[in-house]
Amino acid sequence: MIDVIIIGAGVVGALIARELSRYQLKVLVLDKENDVGNETSMANSAIVHSGYDPVPGTLKARFNVEGNPMFDQLAEDLDFHFGRVGSLTLALSEEQIPVLLKLRKLARLNNVEVKLLTPEEIIEMEPNINPEVKGALFAETAGIVDPFNMTAHALENAVDNGVELHLDEAVTAIAENNKDKTFVVTTNKASYQTKLVINCAGVFADAIAAMVAKPDFSIRPRKGEYMILDHYSPDLVNSTIFPLPSEKGKGVLVTPTTSGNYVLGPSSEFVDEKDDLATDKATIDYVKKSVLNLVPSIPFGEVIRVFSGLRASSNHGDFIVEEMKGHERLINVAGIDSPGLASSPAIAKFVVEQLVSKHLTLRNNPNFNPRIRPYINMKALSFEEKNELIKKNPRLGQIVCNCEKISLGELDDLMSRSIPPRTVKAIKKRTRAGFGKCQGSFCQPAIVKYLAEFYGVDLTDVLYDKGGSNIVKCSTKECKI
Amino acid sequence: MIERDLVIIGGGSAGMSAAIAAYDAGLTDILIVEKGRQLGGILNQCIHNGFGLEEFKEQLTGPEFMTRLAVEVKKRNIPIRYQSNVLDLTKNKVVTYSNAKEGIVKVKAKAVILATGCYERSAGAIQIPGERPSGIITAGTAQLYLNEMGALVGKRIFILGSGDIGLIMARRLTLEGAKVLGVSEIMPYTNGLNHNIVQCLHDFDIPLYLSHTVTKTYGKSRLEKIEITEVDEKFNPLPGTEKEFEVDTLLLSIGLIPSNDLLKKLGLPVSKARGAIVDEHYMTDIPGIFSTGNVLHVHDLADYVAAESRSCGKGAAAYVKGAWNLDSPSFNVNPGNNVLYVVPHRVRLANLDDHLTIKFRVNRPLKNQVLTFTFNGEVIKKIVKPIIIPSEMQKVRLPKEVFNTQEGELIVSSEDRT
């Protein structure tokens, strides 16, 4: 008998799993993807919002405001990149100043400190910003985060503390047994009996809930398309730059990332298909036009990738973090769109301490270790420290990704952990190998070979991402066309 | 800290040629830092012929061409660090590199030559529409899989862009049994060399769609289908001209970009060719830091990379020996009508032996042209060209005597012959 099954290994599922691993519980995380955080948690703005602008009293306001200060400790324990770079919300005309003042009122109600800046103060902070700027709201506590490793490391830590993770396993049915108060969760591979189910299935959360009973919410994904600039325009912006928010959301932003490049986007359009991740020229052109209003000197020649992500927006508008009515042992954590990433640590704490605790006794796990084994980050070390490490492990001196300077030793370290990547993309997300200017055109063959050797499979078996995304079709000697 | 007279970053056609020339000019304390397992760089995966006609007066394959140069490097006992990646280069010419054997090494050099070659423009750079399936891959990467790993990346293939690597791969993949359904080029003319169009497309009945681009891609895990559409002169797709191809692979041959990370880190300006701004011996604005080959501007032939890099190596040797007068007057070289870029950008006449080699490309195909060299308002040389195309790098030697003064401006243009 399992105590808790978590469906979905995104950032919310991962952090809930980690919170649960503090206690003596048998926890299983299921995800249909072959890597953790492979959907919404992978493709977003990677922003830790300050929490000044959600409507006061909503779950979004509560969890964002509570979640933001939790990041410092979390980033330290889980060894992921996080920086409090602050955010600026710009007023680009005199007419927009009253909106800033209204936002400042919201901030006060949410207990988030913000400062109204003059154009001179803004230009001093951000010399590349639109010189037409008339004012800005500065939120010092806003930050940027590496969402890939935040998710992956949270689950790694959970697994290290006893949680079980099954990837590539899609839930196909959930049967509730009211007599013994359990569920039987059936997947494409097995069936499991569990006391509680936590639904963290992102854009598919309504479909998962519907396996138990008709949910009172539905998820309609809202697609955001983005561009990434390479990291050769230092100081383009130092903080996250927002336009004024609109009914569509927080708007198209310009932000540095934790790896020194820049993200431009997102657009915001509802889509009907839950796996529609296509980008299109018209939307990308819209993103380009929008960001030029904020930073007129954006060098689009440095764009190295475009991508899109789906926000798991619900028809409730607010987050849904509650037991399902009449089926209280199913906890829905749904509709987690912006500011979901920033809120995720607080959501996880709430789910475990306030909801799971109603059903299960939370006895401390005496072996719980909040920290993961520190990662080797060669780039962050001094000359002497690097050489000390390379002397012990020469593969740390052998670079495999020349754009991002990732060594074979760092790959080895990753593969030795509790959730070793299975795909080229998983390696890319965790290490940045293939994330640079050449987009893997030099290192991808080496990574494919590395994975084939690690798993003892043929080159043709190595996946780029999802099932069927094999890169190599056949060897030249065996190919039947 | 280890000291060297000359550190060359990159051991391909450019790095090797520069090393040989510097050595032969009397500079023997040289180190080549190469990221691969062997010398030669991209030449190792270019198993087709067409190399060597200029340099060796015979047809060679890429590996044969690189071997000729590597033998010369080895004859001179020039030390090489393999599988070594440069992490940093400072204005004071301290090169930091990393490898498994030595760890992180700092070398203080009197001169540094950047010979890091170029990389391929990727799908992201041109914002290809659609999802992110596997099967959309740059031509050079597909070439590496095929020629160095014996692995075929697809069976039904379409090629976007008419760059030379794409053309070479059209033939190569066909010979390996894949079906290449076509090549599309957004420009109304090809970006590859004419002999490649003939030998790689025409000879294999592979259609070339000029003024066409990929407007849709289908497939979530693996590419399944693409749509190409004809474009007008402003590159806007023309509705009604869509054609679909069921393919598992879209090869990209949409341009090469100099690998200029180190230059950008140094804060040096980037030219219209996306390389360094250099003088007559390919020295940048930082005395002692040179740039040559495809990292300076993308060449059409490896032979020309070798020739340019010899001149660079010789220049670096002269610089280290103090044979140069860096303070002597100079003139600027700028592109004029119809010219995309010019190399070099600045010339000290006093440091030239007997002639100046100017390299440039036109920005579109032109007919009945006169390549015109205007020095301080006066035309000093004219060359008649019935046809001139951007894919061919132009290379013109100007004797030192044609310059009647050491300062001013040389403008290179291509004018109508009327």
Explain what this protein looks like in three dimensions.
- The complex is a heterodimer of chains A (481) and B (418).
- The longest helix of chain A is centred in the C-terminal third of the chain and has 20 residues.
- In chain A, helix 1 packs parallel to helix 6, helix 1 packs across helix 9 and helix 2 crosses helix 9.
- By secondary structure, chain A is α+β, with helices and mostly antiparallel strands.
- Chain A has 3 domains: 220 residues, 3-Layer(bba) Sandwich (FAD/NAD(P)-binding domain); 145 residues, D-Amino Acid Oxidase, subunit A, domain 2 (D-Amino Acid Oxidase, Chain A, domain 2); 84 residues, Arc Repressor Mutant, subunit A, CATH 1.10.10.
- Chain A has 13 helices and 23 strands.
- The termini of chain A are far apart.
- The radius of gyration of chain A is 23 Å and the shape is globular.
- In chain A, the strands form 5 sheets. In chain A, strands 1, 2, 9, 10, 11, 12, 19 and 20 form an 8-stranded mixed beta sheet that branches. In chain A, strands 13, 15, 16, 17 and 18 form a 5-stranded antiparallel beta sheet that branches.
- Chain B is α/β, with parallel strands linked by helices and 418 residues long.
- Chain B folds into 3 domains: 188 residues, 3-Layer(bba) Sandwich (FAD/NAD(P)-binding domain); 133 residues, FAD/NAD(P)-binding domain (3-Layer(bba) Sandwich); 90 residues, Immunoglobulin-like (Sandwich), CATH 2.60.40.
- Chain B is built from 7 helices and 28 strands.
- In chain B, helix 4 packs parallel to helix 5.
- The longest helix of chain B has 19 residues.
- Chain B is globular, with a radius of gyration of 22 Å.
- Chain B starts with a strand and ends with a strand.
- The model of chain B has no long low-confidence stretch (mean pLDDT 96).
- The interface between A and B is large, with 57 and 54 residues.
- Strand 23 of chain A pairs antiparallel with strand 11 of chain B, so a sheet runs across the interface.
